[in-house]
Task: structure prediction
Amino acid sequence: MLQKRMSYVAATLTVALTITISAARADNDGPNDCRNLPSQSALKAALIAATAAEGSGLNNQMWGTIVDRDGVVCAVAFSGNNRGAQWPGSRVISAQKANTANAFSLDASSNGGGSGQPNGLALSTANLYAAAQPGGSLFGLQESNPVDTDVAYHGPSAQYGSAQDPMQGNKIGGVNVFGGGLALYGPGKKILGGVGVSGDTSCADHNIAWRVRKNLGLDHLSGVGGVSGDTTRPDNIVFDITPNPNGGTGVSAGGFGHPTCLNTSGSTPLPVVQP
Result:
């Protein structure tokens, strides 16, 4: 009798959990701003072109993801011939990067002329590396918003990177603190979401993401506040980390630096952003 009762309770909990997860997905599948962002085919074309243009790093194929302003995944694509031509783990990392850049960037309208950054603030995932290290001003940031694994690994793998990728229409979450994620800015310097790229060194990821954003025409952020020191590239990667004489993590002069990477060209030649 006790065994039957326990089986009934377990079955009831399983059904309740299934209903809860389904309801959460249904909420995520509601109206979003993906209609104002590039399609999956546009992302794929931009990613292929950007990957071909960047000859540094390991010359790997790449994953790319776009999220809207609420962190809903709008499109997922890869640059290779099939989904196995890129690191499989980079699919979710690209989504995590897109979510991070969107989550920690602002446009001018967000500040309302008040304190802080009057022209908004664009932070790439590369800008967050040093600040998120032990002793940094944002230490612990990378653990603050975990990836939703039900969204990340839901559905058939055969659909990954296609127009039917199961992540689409759902909030992925996650925080990533190395290169490859950028906020997307439309005309009028209005932030629309974020793009994330993964599959190579983190420096090459940043460069390729930069070119993807340029190819999509969503880089209207000239003069937006940033930490790069370059108003024409506000959220560009910064290489100002020097060895720490006390050991451990290196010291970033400006507090938002990123380590250099194997065989990756500098970021200075990257195209300037649009007004």
Observations:
- Confidence is low (pLDDT under 50) at residues 1-30.
- Residues 1-30 form one domain.
- Residues 240 and 254 are 7 Å apart (CA to CA).
